[in-house]
Specification:
By secondary structure, this protein is of the alpha/beta class. Among the domains are: 130 residues, Rossmann fold, CATH 3.40.50.980; 123 residues, ANL, C-terminal domain (GMP Synthetase, Chain A, domain 3). The protein has an eight-stranded mixed sheet, with helices on both faces. β19, α15 and β20 form a beta-alpha-beta unit. α4 crosses α6 and α4 packs parallel to α11. It starts with 17 loop residues before the first helix and ends with a helix. It binds 5'-O-[(S)-ethoxy(hydroxy)phosphoryl]adenosine. The site of 5'-O-[(S)-ethoxy(hydroxy)phosphoryl]adenosine has 23 residues, from α11, β20, β24 and β25.
Amino acid sequence: MTSITTMQPKGQVFPPPTAFQSQALIQSVAAYEALWNYAKDNPEAFWGGQATSLLTWDMPWGVVRTGTGMQSQWFTGGYLNASVNCLDRHLETQGDKLALIAEGEPGEVWRLTYRDLHREVCKLANGLRSLGLQQGDVVAIYMPMVPELVIAVLACARLGLMHSVIFAGFSAEAIRSRNADAQAKLIITADGLYRRGAVIPLKETVDHSLEGASSVEHVLVYQRTGASVSMHPGRDLWWHDLMAMQSETCAPVSVPAEHPLFLLYTSGSTGTPKGIVHTTAGYLLGTALSHRYIFDLKPTDRYWCTADAGWITGHSYVIYGPLCNGTTVVMYEGAPNFPDWARFWKIIETHGVTQFYTAPTAIRSLMQQGDAWPEKHDLSSLRLLGTVGEPINPKAWMWFHEKIGKTRCPIVDTWWQTETGAIMIAPLPGAISTKPGCATRPFFGIVPDVVDHHGVPVGENQGGLLVVRQPWPSMLRTIHGDHDRFLSQYCQVVPGDVYFTGDGARRDADGDYWILGRVDDVLNVAGHRLSTMEIESALVSHPTVAEAAVVGKPDEVRGEAICCFVTLKATEHAGGELKKQLQFHVVAQIGALARPQEIRFVQALPKTRSGKIMRRLLRDLAADRPIAGDVSTLEDLATLDTIRAASTEDDT
Ligand code: WTA
């Protein structure tokens, strides 16, 4: 493939609303372009200047950037601490300002000022130190979206421990493999979390993940629900017992700029999740700077990002970026439809939310419930909306714009990735006109391009591979324990020293970027990244399965649905019962987010003469589209007809 065929919708353009623009940090395209060009031509001066003004350093750096290209290091010689940047430095000027307003699903509200959050983080950090944890150790966190999750993250940062947050929807198997890769010494969890009124037993899942050999020495359990859990003597401790003994101050550990701040596992195009490594200074700078400009921060804002902290969006835009900027952050533990579909709108009204940042999949499901839900609530506190994680379709964009933003709020469609650490492409809301479904312009210091497989830029409006030409401070440094995989997946796919994103894109005549979705075997289901290979290996680990091929199928709400083509060792097992078993098996291996929507039993998978599964054909079959393109490399054309026949039977 040298270029991607694209549809070019002739859509509407929305200039920044005048009232918004007149008070924005960046108020014109000219101002945006001047700063973007300056950063592109003088990256070190730009990033160095921002690092001085946005971060608090214990020791200043010597050089802004060392190393070459995508293997650069930033701010070498400098020392700092991430929790000091998020907490201590705000104490004198705004210690009594709210840092967190958090709602539990049952309805309780916790309000923590910067001083409160600092105190709790210090206490927990002292507790972690008393358990023998030292700079560089890994702490896994498997928690509900309650303030204690933020406290746990920042306590790790205070001691220079790397956190590895695991989304609370992952299975015991997924926790086990991540902890084994990271060699985590401690896991912080809770007795459970509330989801749609039910208690999800987190501790029990953690217990299963620890059966057999494990590097984990202790389990720290926060009591969230009061559900009964079994505590393993010598290994398990209660959060409240540990906290009760701790002093309220804790000297932070000053770490080098490049000290790894955290690991976060994400899916790639191969079977095993990769531990993305982010560093302290570069990551903090990227998140703080982008958060300030893209959300056009004001000191009085009440900013709400609905992402779970188990994903990068939660790390960067619930915790580090906003707290580094001294923002009041709104958090919510539970489901958008509990007790009913007005919950999000009620939270906005109750807490006076000013910026609301969420995923297109959430917008589509909220939209499906009808306009009566948002109409019940006063949403006039909102001044900006944002989306992240997947392409937003124009219909959902328009609904968000009209029914939630009442045409008064700009929408920032933010494109970025776990690996990029911070937002890369998004409209600056006071300067750039938005177009439904378009991420628009690169952020300051970010130089993207659209190229073919040889690294040659493609023309205007032509689809190609999205790459980034210059290194930036918040990019991943490596994949934990596998630097070769980092090089081969990000730095060597496209010739030239460029970062390959795995996404396709096109750039239009205005210089705006349209993201076209993944060009590798990564699915995006409800904004969650999943690897087809990971689901395939889960399926073939079931005793009845011979081979499996997993593809995405278009889905109105979730963006993509998981469709599995499966061949069995003995065909007599095929049937509804086995389908259920296989769904259950995938959930046990990975987690509920990977539950296949559809399983189709087939006689054989379509393969090329060299034995590669032709996923392109399966994607067409899954979507019930006619097969597009060339089938001349298919080994046995008859396979296609049998699969199509099988699919029709199965769909009934
Ligand atoms: C997709 C989430 C279109 C993209 C922050 C990317 C998007 C992957 C957008 C990263 C957007 C993210 N428009 N697609 N605004 N934002 N994506 O690592 O395919 O969970 O490569 O990071 O999500 O997913 P990840």
